[in-house]
Amino acid sequence: MNRIVPLAAVALGILAFATVLLVIAPAAQIRPLEGTPGLQPYTQQELRGREVYVEQGCVYCHSQQPRGPEQAPDAQRGWGRAAVASDYVYDRPHQLGTMRTGPDLLNVGARLPSRDWHLTHLYQPRAIFDWSIMPAYPYLFEVKPEAEPGDVVVALPKDDAPDQGVVVATQDAEDLVAYLLALDRTMPAGEDSVRDYGYESREPRE
Amino acid sequence: MKQNERRIVEGGDSPQQRKAGDGAKRAILALAGGAGLFVLGSIAFDLGILGDDGSHPTNSSERESDMAAAYFSPPAETSIPDGPDGDAIRRGMALFVNTKTNAADFVGNELSCASCHLDKGREPNSAPMWAAYVIYPKYRSKNKQINTMEDRLRGCFTYSMNGQDSPSGGPPPAGHPIYKDLQMYFHWLASGAPVGESLPGQGYPELEKTALGYDPQRGAQVYEQNCAACHGSNGQGQRDLNGKLVFPPLWGPNSYNWGAGMARVNTAASFIKANMPMGQGGTLTDQEAWDAAAFIDSQERPRDPRQTGSVADNAAANHGQDTYYGKIVEGRLLGTGTGR
Amino acid sequence: MTRPEEPSRPGENFEPYEEMRQIPIGVIMFAVALALWGGVLLYQSSYAVAVGRADETVLSPQSEQGLGLTGAKLFEANCTTCHQPGGEGVEFAIPPLDKSPFLAGGPEIAASILLRGIDGPIRVGDETFDGHMPSFASALDNAEIARLATYLQARFAGRKQAISGERVAALRREIADAGPFAGGQEIAARFDSSLSPQPEVKPLAGGMGISSGILELVNQGRGEVWSCSSCHGDRGQGADTVPRLAGLPADYIAKQLLDYTEGRRRNENMELVARSLSETEREGLGRYYASMRAASTARPSLGGNLERGRELVLSGDWSIGVPSCTSCHGPSAFGVTPGFPGLAAQHPSYTASQLAAWVSGERDNSRQKMMNVIANALNDRDRAAVADYLATLPPVPAPATTADEVKR
């Protein structure tokens, strides 16, 4: 350890270099971005729904980052165009996710625009898809003998409906669905959008 | 002592022993060697030794090159020239696809040229016009004379387009601009094709007779399964919401008359085998193609314009094998016409 | 035991270290080669970024129809499938534009017709046409309609009078909720009485003869199933992978609903809904959506090549055995009742997903496997191109139901 100064200098230099490339440069690239043209900020209800999304750990199974055709066939799966940085300006923190046990959700509001569908699906996914491995969230709902005015009743096939009474969405369920319906980045990405196209040539291969 | 230890650990030459200029040499060697390695690597990669660059030829491009090798390819529509020639070619093309409108006075049914000459007369094996253009003028046994392209076209208007029921009562008169425009279109389609040669893909490829022969009753089943979805169970075709004909009628007053080539079972069978159902040419068996043709051509259609006396006389004079003209099917004499 | 003398052995406290030792030349060569490789990849990647950017600009709405297309190009792209390249129309079906008196009366008439469409009989020259023209309001922007109307004037009526994009914008606001012109009669009454006499327009049916049960299914749903409109929109316009239903043939819709229950078409959401419907309801829903005119909400979104899409839709690609879409789905892809649905203004994600479903066999309800064969012949890029091009077309001009038809 007789050359502590040069060693420290090189180590700090590497750290500084990495910080510039991995933190400062991307921030400089992304900070000035405005939202993708047509993207609306979340409403209060949608933000509450986002809290529910985080609390329930949706991110452990669902990503929010459709990939381009050079990386994954997400467009063919119907998950929408590749996400760009400006799609996330209102997401703090973003819910990109790393696991795809379930489908990507960044455009779920566009491809499944029905509030009623989402309520049924959250109450019991297997009411719709008998092969679904998504957990059911019955505790986001209440079973009441009769619906009161203003209640949102969940449509359920007879096999999945309780023997008596009706299933009514709680405020949490309604908020969560409002958030899911707000997940719609199907608008064009805009010409100055920031996106990593990777190194793979996108020249058509014939 | 210390000196001694150091030498052992180093193991290499001492710095003092290095010659001057060694560094520069090494640098040049390293750069050249690196570049060489890179080039070698690229070559190996290109040859596929190092793996796969991911460029698989797609199915479609393979097929495309096969087809291009086998058949003459007419020029692209975008290459129609400007000027009077180009205008005539465009008029000819419009006549070809929208015959009823653009030759209203001379067309007595709802067909257009492109009903049977698919892809605007470009598709091989559906009697493409680039192949027809280069074999005329020639002798035709149908009228026992030398036919120019105009003569041939007059035949089309007389029989396939059923000119007798048109407002003018016949085909366009000799020298009519319709003939000129159509020929300009064909001439352009045949740009670069060898004159006088029978090109691959010409006409409809002749279909061998089957051991069973053909039978309209079997054909009715084939028709219902394979043709009716588009041409309708009643054979009258289908229209879109504006009344524009999308699928042509196959019999009845709005189809080709008894004098047309397509009214002969062998011609229809050859066309069907090679081209129908649309986009699935060649999928019907030979037997199915013959039977479907027999079913379609044993339906009543406009009368033969050559008929002067009785149907039987005309059958003897102008009709040979492989036609239901003048025959009795299900108790009805065929060939009497549909009337309008 | 004494060890033999080892003079070269270092002392115990010695800490080994290394001084200058040359890196083998081979390693340097390898590093240089890697650096070159990296440089080349970076260069290629910069090219890929340019391609990607270019791809994405195709997606932006400004460039989808090619901003700045001339009137002639707009005419070719939007009018010729029906009115023909020479403007001669089609006998008994499509009125000619050439020398049409409707074009001679100033560009505002043409612009208004383009914005609203026509539904009902119209007399042009000596002939009467009882047809349906789509509204281009949702397919073309104001400047495009202005250029197109000006071009039509100049070419077919020989008038040099131009109309501005601002004037078209004003017209658009004026007639926003007007719906299609009721035949030539309304056009003559509004603009130019010299166009009269125009044929009588049959009275329209109120309420389209749709029962309240069907309307409830559409708007509220029922106990165990969701409403149609919750996914397909209140005008049947659809979105993204949810198809547009407005203007599809009634029998086609009813057949799809039946096919969901019988496994010829797969989609769990629709299977659940379709299982709860009776035959009468399936037919009623079909009739409800078949007579609906809704503005197009579809935009190209898959980055498909619109030129290639146009080629496949209008001419096909016979070298890969694909006939044109229009040869079966009608000259303007408005559909042919009952078997061939309209494709115009359908959402590209839906069209592409269906083409993929024909390939995978997830959808298998086409007669004679027509669509399976065609979809198989197309590659991914072709499917995106077709889907995107179809989204640029004006929506199906669903015929308004007349009082006679309701009785029937």
From TrEMBL, chain A:
Gene3D superfamilies: Cytochrome c-like domain. Residues 44-184 form the Cytochrome c domain. One of its GO terms (molecular function) is metal ion binding. Keywords: Heme, Iron, Metal-binding. InterPro entries: Cyt_c-like_dom, Cyt_c-like_dom_sf, Cyt_c_oxidase_monohaem-su/FixO. It comes from the Bacteria. This is Cytochrome-c oxidase. It comes from Pelagerythrobacter aerophilus. The lineage of its organism: Bacteria, Pseudomonadati, Pseudomonadota, Alphaproteobacteria, Sphingomonadales.
TrEMBL record, chain B:
SUPFAM superfamilies: Cytochrome c. Gene3D superfamilies: Cytochrome c-like domain (1.10.760.10). One of its GO terms (molecular function) is electron transfer activity. It comes from the Bacteria. This is Cytochrome C. It comes from Pelagerythrobacter aerophilus. InterPro entries: Cyt_c-like_dom, Cyt_c-like_dom_sf, Cytochrome_c-type_DH. Residues 87-193, 214-300 form the Cytochrome c domain.
UniProtKB/TrEMBL annotation, chain C:
The keyword Heme applies. SUPFAM superfamilies: Cytochrome c. The keyword Cell inner membrane does not apply. It comes from the Bacteria. Gene3D superfamilies: Cytochrome c-like domain (1.10.760.10). The chain crosses the membrane at residues 23-43. Keywords: Heme, Iron, Membrane, Metal-binding, Transmembrane, Transmembrane helix. Residues 66-156, 216-293, 304-394 form the Cytochrome c domain. This is Cytochrome c domain-containing protein. It comes from Pelagerythrobacter aerophilus. The lineage of its organism: Bacteria, Pseudomonadati, Pseudomonadota, Alphaproteobacteria, Sphingomonadales.
